[in-house]
Amino acid sequence: MIEIISSNTVYRGKIFNLRVDTARMQDGHKALWEIVDHPGGVAIVPMDDQDRVLLVRQYRRAIGTTLLEIPAGTQEPGESIEVTAFRELREETGMGAENLELLAEFYLAPGYTTELMHVFLATHLSPAPLPRDIDEEMTVERVPFDELLASVIRGDIRDVKTIAGVMLLAQRR
Question: Would you call 136 a catalytic residue per the annotation?
């Protein structure tokens, strides 16, 4: 059995914390694990009444390029995942949804982060904008679902939450 000897938070940030755990492995040697503690997030596949998905195109500094993605965001303290999904949809696309359905939950990268992603399908959309976060600049694009699925299959979409959301919806249809 693996025993955690110590756990130290070395960084506290706005979105996540970084901790270093020291563990004693089953064979007795010690290991250091760097863990990103994340409160969890949501990703939304917003489908309009013309079978188009609303996507956001935004610059991602960590990889130095712009990606086309489904809207997503981080769960705030005390928020349910549904409230987070409705808020993020409104902030990023300017649209609200009458229906919200959970498609799946999965860990993004369990080798180093605790982040659990909740993927929703949002339908019956109508205008309901909220102000965007000050560090976000994005444009909204409406892409027919079949074209988006083809883009995912071709490898044009490289964001995992978008790939997962599209494939989950394709399997369900």
Answer: yes
